[in-house]
Amino acid sequence: MDAEALVRAKLPGDLVKVLGVESQSSSKAEAFTQAFLKSSIQQHTRHDLKTMLSHKAVVLGYSRPKKGKVKRSSKKAKGLNACQKRALKIFQLKPEHQRYKLFLSLHELWRQYIIDLCGGLKPTCSPQFVQQKLLKADFHGAIITVVRSKCPSYVGTTGILIQEFKHVFKIITEEDRLKVIPKRSSVFAVEINGFVSHIYGSRFEQRASERSAKKFKVRGTIDL
């Protein structure tokens, strides 16, 4: 007797009484076997398109945005570059505004600013202390005089400093003339409440914002 016939054969009568089971007909046995196999064996639904679409979400070409880059770019403030500033003429003073009297109030504000910066600027203050404070101070509004320069035409020029760039000072004179004085190879004199300080333009070849954070070393005077 082969294996399939043995499986389908009826149980002997003595086993029916011992096991407490009853043999079924061949048709019922076959139906039970099919139902058992269908429920026991896991069916692969990978290729069942209808089942996949009805029970599973399908994502088509979706990529989650990177949050890190978005945050970093949002923090950066977009400003104007140098070419755009020149095109808009941001740093150019209109001719009708080139008047000495208009900047006298700015000079008074600067004078009070220096007095506060130097702790009252008392007569007991040492010149070295005042000099160190002036090296890091903002000079917009100061009255400066060119006392020495490699270009003789600049010597004696006096006016209120209205714009400071990395390499030049722009001053307005009492004759309402706008002068551009190079810092290099020039020495300037500044007077505040009786204190006269001489500053070398080569030590000031930086923007005011950069100079305020720089540490200056004590050096000897530099001849022109």
Outline of this structure?
The chain is α+β, with helices and mostly antiparallel strands and 224 residues long.
Keywords:
224 residues; 35% helix; disordered C terminus; alpha+beta; 9 helices; single chain
Fold and architecture overview:
The protein is of the alpha+beta class. 35% of the residues lie in helices and 17% in strands. It has nine helices and six strands; from the N terminus they run H-H-H-H-H-H-H-H-E-E-E-E-E-E-H. It has helices at residues 3-8, 13-19, 26-40, 49-55, 67-75, 82-88, 104-117, 127-135, 208-211, and strands at 143-149, 158-164, 168-172, 178-182, 186-192, 195-200. Strand 5 (186-192) and strand 6 form a beta hairpin. It is rod-shaped and about 135 Å long. The model is unreliable at 220-224 (pLDDT under 50).
Distance between the termini: 123 Å
Unreliable runs = 220-224
Q: State the oligomer.
A: single chain
What order do the helices and strands follow? Answer: HHHHHHHHEEEEEEH
User: How many extended strands?
Assistant: 6
Number of helices: 9
Largest beta-sheet details: 6 strands, antiparallel
Q: Provide the helix percentage.
A: 25-40%
Shape: rod-shaped
Structural class: alpha+beta
* Content of β-strand: 15-25%
Rg, rounded, reads 46 Å
